[in-house]
Amino acid sequence: MSGMRTFVSASWMVVLVGIGYGMWAIISPGEEQRKELIKNLPESNPKRMEETRKRNALVMQALKEAAETDENIARGPAR
Q1: b/e code 4-25 from CB counts within 10 Å (16+ = b)
Q2: Model confidence at 2, in pLDDT bands (50, 70, 90)?
Q3: Cα angle vertex 9, ends 5, 10, to 5°?
Q4: For the purposes of burial, counting CB atoms within 10 Å of the CB of 67, is it exposed (0-12), middle (13-18) or buried (19 or more)?
Q5: 14 and 22 in contact (C-beta within 8 Å)?
Q6: Are the C-beta atoms of residues 71 and 78 closer than 8 Å to each other?
Q7: 10 phi and psi, to 5 degrees?
Q8: By three-state DSSP, how is residue 29 classified?
Q9: Which ranges in the chain belong to alpha helices (H)?
Q10: What residues contact 44, with CB distance under 8 A and at least 6 apart?
Q11: What single DSSP character describes residue 45?
C-alpha cells in the first residue's frame, strides 16, 4: 500500500508542476509582445539613457568619496 501511496503522491506532484508550467506559458508574453515591451522601455530613449548614465556616475562618485574617508557620512556633518 505504501508503494501505491508514493506513486499517487508523485503523480499529483507531476500534475501540479504541469499545471504550473501551463499557467506560466499562458501568462508570459510571446516573442512579439516581448519585443514591443523592450522597444517601449524608458532606457530605449537616448536622452533618458544619458540622464541615467550621469546619475549613476554621480552616485558612484559619492560612493567612492565615502569609501575613501573614515568619517561616517550617514550621520551627517561632523560635530
Answers
A1: eeeeeeeeeeeeeeeeeeeeee
A2: confident
A3: 115
A4: exposed
A5: no
A6: yes
A7: -65, -40
A8: coil
A9: 2-27, 31-39, 46-68
A10: 38
A11: S
Site of grid cell 560612493: 63
0.90 surpassed by pTM: no
pLDDT in tens, 23-63: 998 888 888 888 888 888 877 788 888 998 999 999 999 99
Residue 1 C-alpha cell reads as: 500500500
Half-sphere exposure of 56 (CA within 13 A, CB side): 6
Position 18, amino acid:
G
Joined grid coordinates for residue 49: 539613457
* Residue the block writes with cell 574617508: 69
Residue 1 or 16, more confident? 16
